[in-house]
Design a protein that fits this description.
By secondary structure, the protein is mainly alpha-helical. The chain has one domain. The protein has 16 helices and no strands. Helix 5 (111-120) packs antiparallel against helix 6 and helix 14 (291-303) runs antiparallel to helix 16 (318-342).
């Protein structure tokens, strides 16, 4: 028997609670290890709670915004719209994907549901991968925040150039070496422009405004519950890591041309700071860390952190999630080290 929309939403909500309990259990296990080593229970719980709530409260509104954008895309965007905008040439299409964030301005907390909906609407897989990695930086909100923090400096230009190069590079790897059915989970893949560039589904009529808005809100609610479980798990793990890892030790390693980049990548992954405000955090490292490592922090972090890596698993197969983490990690590492060794800032 077919389930109603309310039953489906309730089932997803219960599933989210289950995943949330799992994430909190993992984080609790990590904290228990510290407590058993002699740390004060009240202090540990206080630090963990503060950091968990700080990350979650910062991220949740952007996830909600992303799911609302996703619902609007589902209701009003058709496969034919995607086909008209995206070039047929794979290289040109991938470059377009790097700048789509200016049309869909979402951070890493909200980009995952948006890109999944775009996949369902016929966006080529490799273009979606490029958009997924680039959009958290390549959007007007982050452009303004980075300018306010650093001004018109090499950090501002370098952040956007390096993000575009890495995102396009990873997108081209997927364009040349993978098929949609090998990359995406079943619920994220539709046989539209799936590698061939040809529309294979019949044209669907555009929904009326009122009905479309109601459908968009319903879709946003369902998707918020579905993606929210990954956000809660990632937030709990990030808060636990921030509680357990001594940042003073990491900051003491900030001057080496190689180790400074690695340390900033670890910080970016662990801190899970939203890309709309991470420039102000990075500003605090100026004078302590190398410029190449700061640029790495500002590019790798928005592409991949703990919470977004967990959310990737709702769209991509697990093996692909590994590559979505590894490729940006290696490319930003090489870029940061090269900048430290060869460019005088």
């Amino acid at each position: 028997m077919q389930k109603t929309a309310g039953e489906q939403t309730a089932r997803r909500a219960l599933g989210s609670l289950g995943w949330s309990a799992t994430g909190l259990g993992v984080a609790g296990g990590l904290l228990a290890a510290v407590i058993s080593a002699g740390s004060d229970l009240g202090t540990i719980i206080g630090i963990f709670s503060t950091r968990f709530l700080g990350i979650f409260i910062e991220a949740a509104p952007f996830l909600l915004l992303g799911t609302l954008v996703s619902g609007v895309i589902d209701s009003f965007l058709t496969p034919e719209d995607i086909a008209r905008v995206v070039p047929r040439n794979s290289i040109l299409a991938t470059i377009v994907g790097a700048f789509m964030g200016f049309a869909f301005p979402v951070c890493e907390c909200g980009v995952v549901p948006v890109v999944r909906r775009l996949f369902n609407k016929g966006l080529p897989m490799w273009v979606g991968v490029t958009f997924l990695l680039a959009a958290p930086v390549m959007n007007p909100v982050v452009l303004v925040s980075t300018f306010v923090a650093f001004g018109a400096t090499p950090v501002l230009y370098g952040r956007f150039i390096l993000t575009a190069v890495v995102a396009v590079g990873v997108g081209l790897v997927f364009a040349l070496g993978a098929k949609p059915q090998e990359v995406l989970r079943a619920q994220s893949w539709m046989p539209v422009m799936g590698g061939s560039g040809q529309i294979s589904l019949p044209a669907a009529p555009r929904k009326p405004l009122r009905a479309g808005l109601m459908d968009a809100l319903r879709q946003a609610g369902d998707e918020f519950f579905e993606m929210g479980r990954y956000l809660v798990i990632g937030t709990a793990l990030a808060a636990a890591m921030q509680t357990l890892v001594s940042q003073e030790v990491l900051l003491a390693l900030g001057r080496g041309p190689v180790i400074s980049v690695l340390v900033m990548q670890v910080l970016a992954f662990v801190l899970s700071v939203c890309s709309t405000v991470d420039a102000f955090l990075a500003l605090a490292f100026v004078g302590t860390f190398t410029t190449g490592s700061i640029l790495t922090f500002l590019t790798f972090g928005p592409m991949v952190d703990i919470k977004s890596a967990l959310m990737f698993m709702g769209v991509f197969k697990r093996r692909v999630v590994f590559y979505l983490i590894l490729l940006p990690l290696l490319m930003t590492l090489l870029a940061g080290v090269w900048l430290n060794l060869n460019v005088a800032f």
